[in-house]
Amino acid sequence: MSSHRAATVAFDHVTKRYSGTGSGLRGAVEDLCIEVPAGKICVLVGPSGCGKTTSLKMVNRLIEPTSGRILIDGLDAAARDVTELRRSIGYVIQQVGLFPHQTVGENVATVPRLLGWAEDRRRERSDELLTLVGLDPAVQRGRYPSQLSGGERQRVGVARALAADPPLMLMDEPFGAVDPIVRERLQNEFLRLQADLAKTILFVTHDIDEAIKMGDLVAVMEVGGKLAQFGTPDEILANPASDFVARFVGADRGLKRLALTRVEALNLRPAVTARVGDDSSHARQRILTDPFEYLLLVDAGSRPIGWIGRRQVPSSGALTEAMASAMSPLFDRRTTLKDALAMLIDAEVQVGIVVDDRGAVQGLVTADEITAFGRRETFDAGATSG
Amino acid sequence: MIRWDVIQGNLPLIGAKLLEHLALTLVAVVGGLAISGLAVMLIRDRPRIVALVTGFFSVVYTIPSLALLAFLVPLTHLTFLTAEIALVGYTLFILTRNLLAGLASVPRDALEAADGMGYGRTRRLCQVELPLALPLIVAGIRIATVTTIGLVMVTALIGFGGLGQVMLRGYNFRNDTLVLVGFVLTVTLGLIADLGLGWLGRAITPWSRARAG
User: Which chain B residues are within 8 Å of A100, Cβ to Cβ?
Assistant: First the structure.
């Protein structure tokens, strides 16, 4: 659908000062230097008044910097015609800013209209985008914004920003005005879209959880418009550059890191398994030497049935399903460590079973291993070491 | 009491005065709209001047109509211009106030989105601000029109006045029928203008009635 155009963005010693005392610090930006590679989401996050929105608005020149340059694909934004620049950048704001007097279809086609596209091309594009963001064009294109739910409005806002296939999108708290459940759905949908579109996106939020979730890169800013730290979400959670960043990401940053990592990063502990119908005495022999005192009973397809305690394994005869007592939570390789830990805390057995797509046992994970993993300096070492 | 023969005999006069009434009203409202529109476009970004200008218009609005005419006649004599200066003067306060309120009612986020997407100033005004200000602008035109239809009567004192002339003539000649005709036609005109402009306002702002469900 889309040409995979994406731009690089670089803030080159960008400063914005406001005159006046007292409130002069609010929204100011001090010597900001960041580089965002093409196709990445860079989240600007920080407390209110830290200059994150100012930074965003300097990109499409709704605010002009006091000094410094913003380079889009290496070109100074200040040197470009301002309306042409803005039409080439997608813009989504928290209150969405749909035009109340235009239908959904007309709203989505705003920038194509400004660019002078023919009417049927505009309509076609607008229908295509409504479909892309999960709205039915036949139902929605003729409605007015006042007839939409909050979530639908946000979707239309995203569709409108994408209309002219901009290589760069600016999103200012785009999911801030909807309730947490709708927000999470919109975030997930947007990440799925972005996996296809691969736009370069500057994304502003005050919510560190949203920043960690949405960002390939995260720029943490503090009041006064100073960049406190710039890096991947994991780098920021693992090694906060200052007390401010540590406090801002929160005392639960270990847990947040676990939310970023999936079970596949762990070295799985092998399970002692036996199939239904196997000889008990043989199985008993194997479990006697294993420090973990339980035998995992599996079916013919290696799918787990349940645990049999060492003492419950009979000395002779065949193993039956009835012998299995307790069962563990099941994870797959994509389960996040945070979810895995949460399931283990609730489970009767503090060991999780990792299964593959067919449900066959791959290995075991314990809660201790997950928490130990969360304390490591970097996750990469854990993921690659033998 | 009503003498139909009087009405029949005066039909040409009544028709002519009805047209004059309409013309005086139309010129006053259109002229008022042009002046207040121009004024608002020039001063809207300067709050102090806005306060000054609306203050001045509101003072004009409070001058009794007879006093205003008496003040104007020595300057511009018994002319159409005199009548219109007075009539336009009274529309300015209503129209300016509603124009400003209409523009102020445009959601800020819609303006920010328009700027961010690359609307120029003029295009933003014509395609975003004015359409969204329409409900309040039309409401102002409606009030101004109905008010002017009433005020036109007073200009009968300087030889205009539309249907006011019909009433004045009826009064001078002790002819109750003419008084009644002037009265009924004026009220009817006001009602038609009120209902018609109300309908027009709704017709050109379909979005303002669209609600969820």
Answer: 107, 110, 132, 207-208
Q: Are residues A182 and A240 in the same domain?
A: yes
Q: Is residue B213 part of a domain?
A: no
- Contact (CB, 8 A) for B164 and B152: yes
CA B129 to CA B133: how far, in whole Å? 6
Cα–Cα distance for residue pair A96/A173, rounded to 1 Å: 10
Range of the domain at B11: 4-208
Q: What ipTM did this prediction achieve?
A: 0.86
Task: Look up the CATH number of the domain holding residue B40.
Answer: 1.10.3720.10
Per-residue pLDDT at A378:
52
Least Cα distance to A12 among A27, A32, A26 occurs for A32
Domains in chain B, number:
1
Read off the pTM: 0.81
Q: Which of B108, B117, B132 sits opposite A86 (nearest CB)?
A: B117
Chain A residue with minimum CA distance to B119:
A83
Q: Determine contact, residues B163/B186, Cβ cutoff 8 Å.
A: yes
Cβ-in-10-Å burial (0-12, 13-18, 19+) of A294 comes to: buried
Structural domain boundaries, residue A107? 9-251
Looking at CA atoms only, how far is residue B146 from chain A in angstroms?
Answer: 27
- Count the domains in chain A: 2
Using the predicted structure, report yes or no on whether residue A21 has a pLDDT greater than 90: no
